[in-house]
Design a protein that fits this description.
Blueprint: H1 20-27, E1 33-34, H2 46-54, H3 68-78, E2 85-88, H4 91-102, E3 108-112, H5 117-125, E4 129-133, E5 135-136, E6 139-140, H6 142-148, E7 153-159, H7 171-180, E8 186-190, H8 194-197, H9 206-213, E9 217-222, E10 235-238, H10 241-250, H11 258-269, H12 271-294, E11 298-299, E12 306-310, H13 315-324, E13 327-328, E14 330-332, E15 337-344, H14 348-366
Parallel strand pairs: 1-13, 3-4, 3-7, 7-8, 8-9
Antiparallel strand pairs: 2-10, 5-6, 9-10, 11-12, 12-15, 14-15
Helix pairs in contact: 2-11, 3-11, 4-5, 6-7
The structure holds pyridoxal-5'-phosphate.
Pyridoxal-5'-phosphate binds next to helix 4.
Length: about 375
């Protein structure tokens, strides 16, 4: 057997949330509610889907590799130059490109103890040393990040708000981090859940403001969450054009497919859909947090479309019992949190299904 690169031996594959189809297949269930991957329970914007269907006619042709129309739309939307933007096959691809472009073996990646796990996985794949910074109150401690950064630190990853803890950092904290780290380190602000946190006083105005002022900052956003387009796989990064140029050089030639480019451009114009999605989430998150609290969960504050909670039962046990009830939640063993779960906020009906399933699971456990 041919041995893979040494760095790969340390890497554990990402465990995605279980899919509805796999639960239906494995347990023979008809109706399954998935609250495991922080998708938008309203699905995609109908306007975006109309653009997707219209693109059908052009599917015999390669898409434009640099996603120029989508980049131009994003540039207008954010008040930056198109050259400051790279579009990826999910923001996951941008994480990969950043690691491939900037990490030599033995360089350092600074990431949070319970920060989004893909940063650590992708950094280790490049043979980089991953420095894990402890959290304070389930929140990134950016003062400790600054202390941990050394001249060898190349990438400093901050998911804001964070997955899986749902907490956020303020503009002041982010600015202090940017002021404190060596200019040879690139700060990556992953704002996958931006729309859910944007109205919180003190949440950073990263675009265009912070990116204009700092050429060692990349901001990432995605169409997978509030835009409801996770299945299309589109995310993007915004940074200094020179830096974006390095990522562009190594991306796959046609990394974002044509209907996805068209649908995302239209999704950007449908601000009303995003507004409605955030409003539904805000209202339902209160109900979910309160009801889970009444059932004995320790629920944290969340600036996102999910809750992070200490579970009355070990997370994996609860996950398995809930699968049999047709509800998929997310255990957090891979984060070293065997007593915690992450549960996405659903529609009112989906959340009622969640509560019913939990009641049945807890009643069985008590019997
Ligand atoms: C913090 C964070 N960043 C990035 C991603 C990746 O999103 P996508 O690749 O779908 O854009 C996720 C998805 O769960 C996330 O939670």
């Amino acid at each position: 057997m041919i041995a893979p690169r040494r760095a790969l031996r340390e890497v554990f594959p990402y465990q995605p949330g279980k899919s509805i189809a796999s639960v239906q297949r494995e347990l023979g269930l008809k109706s399954v509610v998935k609250l495991a991957s922080n998708e938008n329970p309203l699905g995609p914007s109908p306007r975006a889907m109309a653009a997707y269907r219209k693109a059908e006619k052009s599917c015999g042709l390669y898409p434009e590799g640099t996603s120029p129309e989508l980049r131009a739309g994003l540039a207008r939307f954010h008040g930056v130059e198109p050259e400051s933007i790279i579009v990826g096959n999910g923001s996951d691809e941008i994480i990969r490109l950043l690691c491939e472009a900037f990490l030599d073996p033995e360089d350092e990646v600074v990431a949070s103890q319970y920060g989004f796990i893909r940063f650590k996985q992708q950094g280790s794949m490049m043979g980089a040393r991953v420095i894990e910074v402890p959290m304070t109150d389930w929140t990134h401690d950016l003062a400790l990040f600054a202390k941990a950064a050394s001249p060898r630190s190349k990438l400093i990853f901050v998911a804001n708000p964070n997955n899986p803890t749902g907490t956020y950092n303020t503009q002041e904290e982010v600015e202090e981090l940017l002021a404190a780290v060596p200019k040879t380190a690139l700060v990556v602000l992953d704002e996958a859940y931006f729309q859910y946190a944007a109205a919180i006083p003190g949440y950073p105005q990263s675009l265009p403001e912070l990116v204009r002022r700092h050429d060692n900052l990349v901001v990432m956003r995605t169409f997978s969450k509030a835009y409801g387009l996770a299945g299309l796989r589109v995310g993007y990064g915004v940074a200094d054009p020179e830096l974006i140029g390095w990522l562009d050089r190594i991306r796959m030639p046609f990394n974002v497919n044509l209907p996805a480019q068209r649908a995302c451009l239209e999704a950007l114009k449908d601000g009303a859909f995003v507004k409605r999605s955030v409003a539904v989430n805000d209202a339902q998150r209160v109900v979910v947090a309160r009801t889970l609290g009444e059932m004995g969960f320790g629920v944290g504050e969340s600036a996102t479309n999910f809750v992070f909670a200490r579970s009355p039962q070990p997370g994996r046990k609860l996950f398995k019992a809930m699968l049999r009830q047709g509800v998929i939640v997310r255990p957090l063993d891979e984060y070293g949190l065997p007593h915690h779960v992450r549960i996405s906020i659903g529609t009112a009906a989906q959340n009622q299904a969640l509560f019913g399933a939990l009641r049945r699971v807890f009643a069985k456990a008590a019997a």
